[in-house]
Amino acid sequence: MRLRFPLLALVTLSAACTGWLFDWTGTLCDDANPCGGGLVCVEGACAKPPAAAPDASTADDASVPADAGHNDAGQVDAGHPDSGYDAGFISPPTTECRPSTDWCQAKLPTRTGAWPRLTSVSGYRDDDIWVGGLGPTLLHWDGYTWTDFSAAVVRDAQAQAPPAPTSDLTSVVAGSYFLYAGYDGTLGKSACGWLSSPVPSPSFYYQDYCSGAATRWLGATGPRDSDSCLLVGTGGFLYAYATGQNVNNPYKDPSAPPGVDYTSAHFRNTNEMWVAGTAGTLHYTPNLPGGWDRTFDATAAGFPQTAADLFAVLTTGDAVFAGGAGTLYECMRTGADGHPLLSECANSAPAGTLRAFSGSSRSDVWAAGSDGTSPLLLKRIGVGQWQPVALTGGAPLYGIWRLKSLVLVVGDDGTLLSKIDP
């Protein structure tokens, strides 16, 4: 582990005197976690010293390796890119935001026109974070700056057609196989694709084998170190892939109730994935021979009957969370993988609509959404107890990602806020 709050600055100069001198990297530091590679610890953050400080005798080595201060050791894989595994260090996702417990809006790249709704955020490490949105919008954080890859999304992997300007990306999943899903309004078909490397590439392709179905992909999930994935969409459509599974094309789930849209999914493991949908739909993939050819209704496993639309689902080791319109269910989960049993389900009934969860354990769960035209952000503080979190800015939220002390939320009008929450 590279750092823990509270932070203690090793350089005792005031912010007013030092803010303009240093090139901030965003990596946190303290007495127990000094900076490396020629960086110095200033106000709790690693920074590259200026080439010439006012006092030349204090000037440090200006030659800093590109990856200085980055340490990927000690990762704890919680099984899902949104689960908040420990990458061993924290970098705030904007060069303007120093480590802080205050919310800060990222400075996004220059773009013609206003930034649209950002729908999803996911990170493989804190220097490899992806944000998807309408338009299409595809942003990447490399630990130092945000890069706009929106124009690199193309329609067809075979023909390498021009970009699809009317596409909407509804879900991104960061991992060793980066995955995105959405809808191409120009072609009138679903759109999805992935890249077999976390390193940004000039092009991201819509893959033929998971595109073209009569659905709009609304959610995607998968582990961070595998090409396994599950996509969910309108009309109860699924696309599932994993080594050893036989389902390789979009298909309508035979278990989907009539008229139901699948809205969200969460990967527990290859033997159990969860799907949320409209009209109170909560399903899971069973651990059965033949793969993921259908889902099972979670009401048979103990989930309460509800007519509320569900837009978010999260499963931890011993709990399942489902959220939507005026709905926030927390259930105890027992049973073997692929054969869950739910009990003690309680609805906290928030005044608004939840659209995303993120967390590493039952005691560390966040929920994001909106209350009318205002943002809604909740932090779990106990069984059935959720604390509202005040935000800077007032746009509805659609995505959240938690990595130990780092929290990111995304939403309407290019909202991309980050905060350190120890």
Describe what you observe in this structure.
There is one protein chain. With 422 residues, the chain is mainly β. 1% of the residues lie in helices and 41% in strands. It is built from 1 helix and 32 strands. β28 and β29 (385-388) form a beta hairpin. The longest helix has 4 residues, at 15-18. The model is unreliable at 1-24, 50-91 and 159-163 (pLDDT under 50).
pLDDT < 50 stretches: 1-24, 50-91, 159-163
Which strands sit side by side, in order, in the main sheet? 4-32-31-30
C-alpha end-to-end distance: 14 Å
Number of H- or I-type helical stretches: 1
| Overall outline | globular
Short description:
This protein is mostly beta strands. The chain is built from 1 helix and 32 strands.
Topology:
Elements: H1 15-18, E1 23-28, E2 40-42, E3 45-48, E4 104-105, E5 118-125, E6 128-133, E7 137-141, E8 146-148, E9 153-154, E10 167-173, E11 178-184, E12 189-195, E13 204-205, E14 217-221, E15 229-233, E16 237-241, E17 251-252, E18 262-269, E19 272-277, E20 281-284, E21 296-297, E22 310-315, E23 319-324, E24 327-334, E25 341-347, E26 353-361, E27 364-371, E28 374-382, E29 385-388, E30 397-403, E31 406-411, E32 415-420
Parallel strand pairs: 9-13
Antiparallel strand pairs: 1-3, 2-3, 4-32, 5-6, 6-7, 7-8, 10-11, 11-12, 14-15, 15-16, 16-17, 18-19, 19-20, 20-21, 22-23, 23-24, 24-25, 26-27, 27-28, 28-29, 30-31, 31-32
